[in-house]
Amino acid sequence: MNPTFIDGSIIAQYFYLGLLLLIIASFVAGYIDAIAGGAGLILIPSFLMVGLPPQLALGQEKLVSTIGTIAAIKNFMKSSAIIWQIVPVGIISALLGAYLGAEAILILPTHVINYIIFALLPLGLLATLFKGKLLAKNPSGTEIKKSALAVFITCLIVGFYDGFFGPGTGSIFIIALFIINKLPLLQASATSKIFNFASNIGAFVSFLIAGKMAFLIGIPMIIANLLGNHFGSLHAIHSNGEIIKKVLVITVGLLMLSLAYKALS
């Protein structure tokens, strides 16, 4: 019986189609992340859907979102919304926590990571969706709490989660800064970008050392994510991003259904 050969042009078509979908997902993820947090909720399922191994999917998400966040930080800096007094200690602890989290996930077997992703994606989505309700129940006071210990512990724990998994980290940072440090909502969102960037760097280093990144396909995705973060952060400065939450629910829901179908089949 003769073996069946697949035309190389068909393989190329599938490759370029998959890359195009990842570029679109990167733009959408950047836009959503700048407003509501949750880039990983879009990126990680997208990477898994096109066939990337789970550890490479987590590493690739760090590659794309780490650089993409720079555009949002630039716009927030222009708006003077970042509370710089608490930034140094938060950066150090977020870096440390994320590095430790990434090291932890890298030692786990692939099938275990798949289960972790399926289990934690809904949790990351819930953190993003119910952020508004949590913030509304705890209106910000006039005095900002700048406790170094509180910032260090918060960023260490959230940073570890970011390195270990990631989706929803931006929302968790915003909630923590709003409730624990009493930052106004815009300032909490803007300052969280600095901490999220630091935690991304911590995880980025760990995944880079382990060789869990694909730089060639990552370049166009990074550009798309930068553009998404740019336009999303401009939107965040002038609105509360409620429509983004609705889009996030629909998008993540469809992605998770697709992943579940792929896993079962």
Automatic annotation (TrEMBL):
UniProt KW keywords: Cell membrane, Membrane, Transmembrane, Transmembrane helix, Transport
Pfam families, A to Z: TauE
Membrane topology: Multi-pass membrane protein
GO cellular component: plasma membrane
Membrane-traversing stretches: 12-32, 38-58, 79-100, 112-130, 151-181, 201-227, 247-264
Principal place of residence: membrane
InterPro entries per UniProt: TM_pro_TauE-like, TSUP
Keyword Transport: yes
Subcellular location: Cell membrane
Signal peptide: none
Recorded family membership: Belongs to the 4-toluene sulfonate uptake permease (TSUP) (TC 2.A.102) family.
Protein name per UniProt: Probable membrane transporter protein
Protein species of origin: Pelistega ratti
